[in-house]
Every structure is written in C-alpha cells, then in structure tokens.
Design brief:
single chain, mainly alpha, 63 residues, 2 helices, elongated
Amino acid sequence: MPEPPVSESDLGRLDLGALDLCVELAAAGAELHHHLLCGDRETAELLGAWIDALLDEWNRRRD
C-alpha cells in the first residue's frame, strides 16, 4: 500500500525525490481506484504494477 498522504509539517523533512514519489503514489492509487470502480480491471492491473514499481523505487532510495 502507498504511504499515507504527506502533511505540511512533513514537507520540510522530505527531499524532492521522496516528495515526487509520494505524489506519484497518491495519483496512481486514486487512478487505480477509479478504474476499479469503472470495472476496467485491465487498466487497474497495469496501475497496480506501476505502484509496485514506485514502491520498489521508494525502498531502493531508502537503502
């Protein structure tokens, strides 16, 4: 699951790369939800794979 949304107080502690990943994860999660509600499972599966790739990148940057 993606990280929770970033609050304004957290912004000072994040670097731009991490912030970019947070924004991408939030957008992809919202889009995935939309496609599931519309019954578009094929696109939802692609977005799920994209989210997995973003999370892999998140973990790579943390190490």
